[in-house]
Description:
Layout: H1 26-37, E1 75-81, H2 85-101, E2 105-111, H3 115-125, E3 135-139, H4 143-148, E4 152-153, H5 155-161, H6 167-170, H7 174-179, E5 181-182, E6 185-186, E7 190-194, E8 196-201, H8 202-207, H9 219-231, E9 241-244, H10 247-255, H11 263-267, H12 280-294, E10 298-301, H13 308-314, E11 320-324, H14 328-335, H15 350-355, E12 358-362, E13 375-382, H16 386-399, H17 402-410, H18 419-423, H19 425-433, H20 435-448, H21 462-477, H22 482-504
Parallel strand pairs: 1-2, 1-3, 9-10, 9-11
Antiparallel strand pairs: 3-13, 4-13, 5-6, 7-13, 8-11, 8-12
Helix pairs in contact: 1-14, 10-12, 10-21, 14-20, 19-20, 21-22
Amino acid sequence: MTAHERPIDDSNHAARRGPLGVRLGAALVAAVLLSASLLAACGGSDDTGASSTGEPSEGTAAGPSCATTLAGGTTEITLWHPYNALTRTTLESIVESYNASQSKVKVNIASQGNTGELHKKYSELMATPDQLPDLVFTEDTNLQFMSDSATVVPAASCKKADPKGATYLDALLPPVTSAYTVRGTLWPTAFSVSTLMMYENNTQLRAAGLEPNVFPTTLDELRTMAQKIKSANIAGVKAPLVMKLDPWVLETLITGTQQQIVNNDNGRTSLATRSEIDSSSATTALEWIQSMVADGLLTTIPYGDSIDDFLAFSQGNSSFIISGQRSITSVAAVMDGQAGGADIQGAPSAEVLQRLDINAGLFPGLKAAGQSGVSGSAGYIVHGNDAKVAAAWDFMKYFNGMAQQQRWVLEGSYLPPSQAVLDSPEVQKAFTDTRAGRWTATVAKGLTNLDASFPGPLIGPYNEYRDELERLMTSVAGGADVSSSLTTSSEHITGLLRSYKNEVGG
């Protein structure tokens, strides 16, 4: 759960939330870092027992009201974001086209580097709210923080004030709505959906006697395929699977079995106060990671900003890589010879990369493939004077229009947030005619099949919680006892949850 981005994305401590090298192409490298940081999950709020999923009702909107009438003259507003590479240029282009389309609002766009830097700056300026931006796109894992911050206007309020302008909210895919709803209130007004997926090297699968373009659906199947590849002694292959020790992966595996990570219905009915990560699902996932490393089937890469996992895959050292879906557009561009070059130490040439027979598929789970949840980032309207709120809402309506959403998918590397965008002729044509489109279509199908009644955890101290998962995965991959390590981490997470509850008074 998505990650939902680090030197390139929407992630905090090193990621995402969340989400090959080139002459991997500058775009690919960006997307690679993107995918490694974009990986994230969800957040939450505090206490009543209201519905945690589905469309927010008219009477449940929490937070400030939403002004929707534009002021006279031109209102200038500022938009903060953490994006780089293709996503950044796409957003900048959309802002430019919006500014040119009318004269009532001027949006000034400001990159904040990455999600961690954005979140830190936003938190520090909350004490002086007049210095906050008017719009902010931030990692999905910050939902709990944003809803508790008293600094943003919930989408539910804008829907109540402008039902006609908010019809796009009614069309969101149910898993997207439920992921971003806190106790009956939908908070973000824009959605940048990403998820986990997998790449495989068909050439090496054939060399091991495996069927090409067939992806494992479970970790057990992945292990069986990895063992066959290792037994084939393929030249250059050091370990069949390469993977960063990304907390998003462990969280996704647990959530995919509908196992709660925290109490109170995963923080959905009231603020979470106790970790429930010490479970059979977590134990199975961690034991799988440990045994894969021990048997030489998995190369682990420390969680961080490096692209060593993609370099290992592109060099043929591994046959599989687990990554964020955000990398698809750039990886496909390099494979099709369309990306500009930037020399990356250790990366194969563009010519070599373009000859690789690579395909993309769903992320394997403990029980089924594609149960990776809704991750990525989301856009919020920051509470301010009525003129700026109305201007921000006007831009969000434009951003969520069909033409812009098609660009956000096809150029910005995100998944369609609604069935209408998914079914649009332009998107469907790309999903049929292009490599990137075909790969994205596969991952998008997994998104539409998610169970909206189990959207994943809402956690206040998400960064600290993810840091603990990272330490847990690293220690277990290094041979630490799974049971005792899991218990210790679970107790630490409980302490974090209780401290957060005391701080926010929930």
